[in-house]
Amino acid sequence: MAQAQRITPRAKDFSEWYGDVIAHAELADYSPVRGCMVIRPHGYRLWELMQRALDDMFKATGHRNAYFPLFIPMSFLAKEAEHVEGFAKEVALVTHTRLKATGKAGALAIAVDPTSALEEPLVVRPTSETIIYAMFAKWIQSYRDLPLLLNQWCNVVRWEMRTRLFLRTTEFLWQEGHTAHATEAEAEAEARQMLGVYRRFAEDWMAMPVVTGVKTQSEKFAGAVRTFAIEALMQDNKALQAGTSHNLGQNFAKAFNVQYQTAAGGLEHVWNTSWGVSTRLIGGLIMTHSDDNGLIAPPKLAPVQVAIVPIWKSDEEKSQVSRVGSQVKADLEQAGLRVELDLRENLKPGAKYFEWEALGVPVRLEIGPRDLAAGQAMLARRTGGKAPAPLAGVVGAVTTALEEIQRALFAAAQVRREQASVRGVTKAQFVDLMKGAGGFAYGGFCGGAACEAEIKEQTGATIRLLPDAEFRSPEPPKTCMWCGRPSVAEAVWAQAY
Ligand SMILES: [Zn+2]
Q1: Looking at residue 1, what is its pLDDT?
Q2: Cα(first)–Cα(last) distance of the chain, in Å?
Q3: How far is the CA of 117 from the centre of ligand 1 (A)?
Q4: How many angstroms is it from 453 CA to the middle of ligand 1?
């Protein structure tokens, strides 16, 4: 109990709660370098499971993995005007390549060797469009080389002033897809397809419902023609942009001279897309499902899906419950599940339960001498509820429980999101909402960047998306929620991470 109580309740301070959940689940820690995080094994396993599922989906849609350098010549960033504007204020730069001993003591013992200054400084990649399209220019000659469909898993660095574990860190892990196509229509279809992949991953794997749509011009990626995104609503009613997919048009192709010979013999610039999701998804997973006892991991991504906790008093009981526990573990692993058997001597069962709960393990099996006598184990769900399961059919019972938990988490998150979504919002309601409970506000938008900026300044809310048809209200709004001019599109506003 003591351990569970150390997690700050959500109602008291959501931000503290978030940090406590991460600490108790041993997902990540702050590093000696300000703004950077250390991803601990439990958190990294979660990332690996996410990576594997996403990577399979990328490959199933025809993409191949490659790897490009961490360093980008500074001049590359200047080639696409909007792009440099968007990233200039947050890049880390390598300017020297050597240190030298000074003969002084302590921290002063080494200094930058001024003779080692690079002729052209190198940017530590904030994203890799420029270096990748410089290579595409070399590899693409003919329409036969298209489409070129690549992805890379890597780290990127964006010098952030205010950081939060997983959500905003100076260095983070991600994947970035980069493709080149012969036509504008193919690039648009690709950008849309990958948005669909992200949505499927968020909903089917993370049990995190998302709204899909297009970003406004002021919120789009620097250098893109159009940015599509998936947006999720966290438990504090703030939005999280969980993944983006960009139709880059010919902006980078022109900047990097990526041309191909058409079947008819002409010369054309290619059409590019890029798309990415990052370790930010882990923050989204935490804030979508977890509770005041710690992490709740959706079964499909839980690093440990089942924790078996044998209960004993005597040595004889211990050997009995351990033997059965080992057998159950083997059977569950045989069925492809990720299982831990907790035989630690120094902890009482109750303390073990709290630990596995804080780690987000979806199902716990308790096996005591009385359970053995009855031929059963107690199956406890992380989301609540405990019932006996016959040992003879324990694999089936656990599998069913995991499937039910996965579905229930998605359903609960969807209900929560819809309850926090207001449609046909008026200006007065909107102001109240953004001062109070927050949530997704659907309303008319005039399309004016000035109006958008004023709303942001006065309420802290941004247009998360112009939602896709599926998410739009049955009655299209007639006027701008804020200024009353005619509406050009329905928009979803929220305060966001
Ligand atoms: Zn307006």
Answers
A1: 42
A2: 32
A3: 51
A4: 10
CB atoms < 10 A from the CB of 77, how many? Answer: 21
Q: Which of 5, 15, 21, 49 lies closest to 286, judged by CA?
A: 21
Locate 286 and state its tokens: 């935490």
DSSP E strands: which ranges in 382-480?
386-390, 421-422, 440-445, 462-467
DSSP conformation class of 168: B
Residue 12 CA from chain centroid, whole number: 25
- Give the three-state DSSP class for 85: helix
Q: How far is the CA of 435 from the centre of ligand 1 (A)?
A: 19
- Cα(485) to ligand 1 centroid in Å equals 6
More confident residue, 83 or 3: 83
Using CA atoms in the order 283, 287, 288, 290, what is the torsion angle rounded to 10 degrees? 110
**In this predicted structure, what is the pLDDT of residue 308?**
98
Give alpha helix (H) positions in 61-179.
Answer: 74-77, 81-87, 129-139
The answer to whether 127 and 155 are in contact (CB under 8 A) is: no
In this structure, what DSSP letter does residue 294 have? B
CA of 448 to the centre of ligand 1 (A): 6
β-bridge mates for residue 152, sequence order = 176
Residue 436 has pLDDT above 80, yes or no: yes
- Encoding tokens for residue 300? 């499909």
Give residues with Cβ within 8 angstroms of 420, minimum separation 6. Answer: 233, 237, 437, 438, 439, 440
Q: Which residue has the tokens 């989204």?
A: 284
How far apart are the CA of 458 and the centre of ligand 1, in A?
Answer: 13
* Spacing, Cα 450 to ligand 1 middle (Å): 8
Q: d(Cα 484, Cα 444) in Å, to the nearest integer?
A: 9
CA distance 419 to 285: 19
pLDDT tens track for 219-275: 998 889 999 999 999 999 999 999 999 999 999 999 999 999 999 999 999 999 999
How many angstroms separate the CA atoms of 181 and 187, rounded?
6
Three-class SS of residue 268? strand
Answer yes or no: are the C-beta atoms of 370 and 309 closer than 8 Å: no
Give, in degrees to the nearest 5, the angle at Cα 399 between 393 and 400: 90
105 Cβ contact list (under 8 Å, min separation 6): none
Please say if the pLDDT value at position 4 is more than 50: no
Q: How far does the centroid of ligand 1 lie from the alpha carbon of residue 246, in Å?
A: 25
Rounded CA separation 251/221 (Å) = 12
Determine the distance separating the centroid of ligand 1 and the alpha carbon of 452, expressed in angstroms: 7
